Amino acid sequence: MAGFNRFGRRVSVPSSLQIRMELRALVADERTRELCAELDRLPDSATWQDIIDNRQRLATAAASTVGIK
Q1: What is the pLDDT along the chain (69 residues), one digit of tens a residue?
Q2: Predicted pLDDT of residue 56
Q3: End-to-end CA distance of the chain
Q4: Which positions ≥6 away from 38 have C-beta within 8 Å?
Q5: What is the reported pLDDT for 68?
Q6: With left for phi above 0 and alpha for psi between -120 and 50, is residue 8 left, alpha or beta?
Q7: Residue 69: its pLDDT value, please?
Q8: CA separation for the pair 5, 7 (Å, rounded)
């Protein structure tokens, strides 16, 4: 990774390719989160924790109706 000196220290600067790959990963993660929220009938702004909590609540409710603990 290229770098430059700032106040006597070498600071690494990410390449544009690395930044592009990180942005792609972020966009893919956001699309996946929005899709999971849509499938769970939650708003698009739901966080991963909201999705997990909703799924655990549904699993607990389904287990209690069947009689599984």
Answers
A1: 566 777 877 777 788 888 999 999 999 999 999 999 999 999 999 999 999 999 999 999 988 887 665
A2: 96
A3: 53
A4: 44
A5: 63
A6: left
A7: 58
A8: 7
Structure tokens belonging to residue 20: 């592009």
State both tokens at 3: 């770098």
**C-alpha span between 58 and 36 (Å, rounded):** 14
Q: What number of other Cβ atoms are within 10 A of residue 37's Cβ?
A: 19
Distance (Å, whole) CA 41 – CA 31:
15
pLDDT at 63: 86
Q: Which two tokens stand for residue 33?
A: 């989160």
Per the structure block, which two tokens stand in for 68?
């599984």
